[in-house]
Design goal:
Blueprint lengths: L2 H8 L3 H27 L7 H13 L3 H10 L1
């Protein structure tokens, strides 16, 4: 699948897609760093990693082409 086809499927412009991808990636990077810190200091960031993943999951479940992928996996 080419870029144009994916953008059409995602119903986003290139810039909207880029913004979305960067935003989600940055959230995951922050969650990963907090998870490392939590591993060393268990009293810090107790639930930040899992909560971030759950929030991102809930956001992406609203995306139509993700819903189609999910149905295909079942």
């Amino acid at each position: 699948m080419g870029i144009k086809e994916h953008l059409d499927e995602a119903e986003k412009t290139y810039w909207a897609h880029l913004k979305h991808a960067f935003r989600q990636s940055n959230k995951l990077i922050v969650a990963a760093i907090k998870s490392y810190i939590h591993g060393i200091f268990p009293n810090l960031y107790k639930a930040d990693g899992p909560l971030t993943v759950i929030k991102i999951y809930r956001e992406i479940r609203k995306i139509r082409h993700i819903q189609k992928l999910d149905k295909a996996l079942k």
